[in-house]
Amino acid sequence: MAAGGGAGNKTYSFKVVLLGEGCVGKTSLVLRYCENKFNDKHITTLQASFLTKKLNITGKRVNLAIWDTAGQERFHALGPIYYRDSNGAILVYDITDEDSFQKVKNWVKELRKMLGNEICLCIVGNKVDLEKERHVSVEEAEGYAESVGAKHYHTSAKLNKGIEELFLDLCKRMMETAQAEERAKGNGASQSTTSRRGVQIVDDDPQAATAAGGCCSSA
Amino acid sequence: MSHRSERRGIHVDQSELLCTKGCGFYGNAAWQGLCSKCWREEYQQTRHKQIQEDHALAERLQKEEEAAYANNHQGATQPQPAIAPFSKFEERKTKEKSRKVNTMTKFFTPSAKTPPKKESVPGEALSTPSPSVSRKPLETDRTTQEFIDFLKTLKPGREIFKQCRAFTESMAYKRDLGADELSECVQDFYQNLSDRLHTHFKGSSERVESVMDEVERYMMTRLYEEVFCPETTDDEKKDLAIQKRIRALHWVTIEMLCVPVDEEIPEVSDNVVKAITDVIEMDSKRVPRDKLTCITRCSKHIFNAINTTKKEAASADDFLPTLIYIVLKANPPRLQSNIQYITRFCNPSRLMSGEDGYYFTNLCCAVAFIEKLDGQSLNLSVEEFDLYMSGQASPQRPQAVPSPACSAAFSQMNDSLDLLTGLGVRQERVMEGARRLESDLIDWRDGVEHKVQDVLERFPLEMHPPASPTASSAIDADNVENDHLPSPLQPQLFAG
User: Which stretches are tagged as biased composition: Polar residues (chain A) (predicted)?
Assistant: First the structure.
């Protein structure tokens, strides 16, 4: 489900998938972000596979649903089931593990092929607290991210570094995409959901609306 | 009709109007170009045939049902909560009969075809119609009442109800449409209604959602029979395929899937059992959202199990394998039909975002994984996998705990076995003691005898003959002191 509404006081709902090999710290990343916890022995959260966060960005409400995915290689083929209809993807690798970066590259290729440019991609090099053991060079990673139209971030779930920025930035980008989409569709004031199954025919008067262009301040 | 014949009259050759059988009478398009007489003959024939076929079908169904009933009677161990109690069974049977009458009339419509419905569902035929048929009037009435009560609190409630009812009724005429078209209709309706509600509630999505939930409940309770696993799809075939597949994979162990759950812990195995129950229960619900709730409950139990084992928050890396394991153990009835039904008719906002949607997606992933599963994904070689699949070999289990349901029994049995072994050892010891006692006793007796002998030898027994003569026969012979006795008296004769 894309943007949960048009302009004004509507709430945006975004779905973000977390992709990346097992052990790169996906879970720690979201737990840190949503509950500000790292390696907490005292369990209050049952699970870290589906988490939500409510945000307020420049006066607009955003509901973020973060979907963790199983990172083991044998579940790779299930990816499309997870990431369909998502607005953003966070691709996590471990800076000390070259292989996990290769995995990210595979994911990017697949996502671009399946979802095109509708999805906002973030490539995240996690565990920067282990800088000494770095195996993926900063230049290589950032260069690659730029070449595929993704943004690159350095994070450490342990030190709580770069995580807030990552999610905030992603939300802003997703909002931009959603707004652009609305404009393209005409002012979709009532278009609370995007097409569930590819093609959705808006039967009212879409032609007139398209011509009008981006007019967000509708009723 | 008149319109039609008029048009025919204008541009059709006279000969084409005649009966196609060539009897010389005029034909009629409504009778497939035959005249009334020929049509009646033809129709009677096909009708007769169809009646016969129908009888045969009815008989077969009856037999199947009886067989299923008998099976169910014996095999009451099936873990299916969906099975109706026996009292309901009779009720269902009569209902089934009335359904047959319905199909009978259906046969006479031109496009009728034999319902392939339960030709290939030996085990499932039983539970398939029971929840829906027997509960239908009661449940729909109650839902309607609840729906009306709910809507009373809303200003546009009457309008919403009218629309929903009209739409639900209109669905009855769309029965011949494919499942995807039906889904499209329902989804469009949801979309339109929620758009209007958004305008009405000024964008308060929570209230819109709550109304939409009730709308879904009302509509889908009524439409369930028509749109769940419809005959126009191959859902049922897929159900059977996945069921068979899961059955064939019975040998898959926790270790192969790397499930982070330790069923030795009672709390964990308890949660596993609950998760299995929940995922099976999904089939018994009619409303897509209730089905989703079952999946969510199942997932929560899984998280509990993982947490208890691992002592940390469960990630998707842990969750998915465990869910796969649960699905393999549960083999939920009509799995594919349920998934399709939810995808087609659930309110999209619930399904695509939200927690329920996440767990549902994971269930879809689990099913997809099970369908495609091969040796590699279980860290097995191709040969091993083929062997296990063909049933020629079974993987070595470190312990005999294949399923959580059995594990309790197994541990109990192990306890009993331990107890028995302990008993055996103790008995052995008792026997040992007894033997020792016996030999001790023998020794003691020998010792006593020995001593007695000794004593006897040391103090030989001197026999003092008794003082008084014992044998009167030997009075004279052995009498030692005879000499001291006076000579025996001689008889004397007295001559007087």
Answer: 188-197
